Amino acid sequence: MNFTDGSLFPENQQKLVITAAPYGPEWMPADFPEDIAVSMEAQIQKAVDCYNAGATVLHAHVRELDGKGSKRLSKFNELLAGIRARVPDLILQVGGSISFAPENEGDVAKWLSDDTRHMLAELKPAPDQVTIAINSNQMNVVEQMCAADIAGTSLADPDNYRAYREMTIPAGPEWVEEHIRRLSNNKIQTHFQLANIAQLETVERMMRRNVCNVPLIVTWVAIGGGFEAPNVYNLANFVRACPDGSVLTLETSMLNVLPLNIMAIAMGLHVRCGIEDNIWTQRRDRKMGSVEQIEQLVRLSREFGRDVANGKEAREIYKIGTFYKDADETLAMNGFAPNRKPGQKGFTQLARAT
């Protein structure tokens, strides 16, 4: 991404797209009973409340009535249908991990099988997006958490802590390419959840090979534990690596969330918040629910002079419903340099989108 003169002026920036992640599958309801929705009606209402507060993308997981994260696609169908009926402009983004919570005491938190995750392309009603990880990777979500982050929660239990510490992401190249193909065939946008530049480069190579003809809609997930740390050096390098046609949202965890989101607002990038990422105020004097976190970002963005996108504007920014016909168009529209032609010498010039 290029930051030319005036790039930090709010009048030259896209309106802010706020992604809400209000379901927090790593927590148990007792960890934050005031904010963790359990019944289906409460989970649907949580989406409505997030939208009314200013979020235009909903990162969806779903719970069973016992409070545990659901691994049943029928529950996702029920949630998606209920939200779609109440807030049709909300971008529905299903978490590709489904529920990574451990099923039984002592189990390791893990993603479901390749075949089960492929079935996310068959959800009805179809979500707007499904998130996808690139390249199998460690996902130790507790590595950069401190004792104060988990005090008094279920993550303070040693067995539960270990379950999340040992979690890995299965995302090999054959599965990834097939998953993108299935999502695209069903007009579901692939949303890339990327841990580092190496994963971004893998996405670019897929686009160059004509197996990933989609907009480059990315979340940089800076949570440590196999992912990058949320510091300004890593952020600057990742932003520099993203082409100008991409759309970039920042994600991190716990008390890193607000500082990183402030950077995103100032830089013209997009933000994510919610109890899946953090449950505390910056002083840790109380827990802070998803709606309050959204309202905080709306207020801060307005202080920066940057307007918040409504649902229809967010769909345009996120290019919902857009797919490309071939590698040449994909590279041009995402802002990558074109593929080298046979016999071509020297550097290839940046393709111009039309």
UniProtKB/TrEMBL annotation:
Molecular functions per Gene Ontology: 3-keto-5-aminohexanoate cleavage activity; metal ion binding
Protein name stated in the entry: 3-keto-5-aminohexanoate cleavage protein
Names of required cofactors: Zn(2+)
Key words of the record: Metal-binding, Transferase, Zinc
Pfam family for this entry, one: BKACE
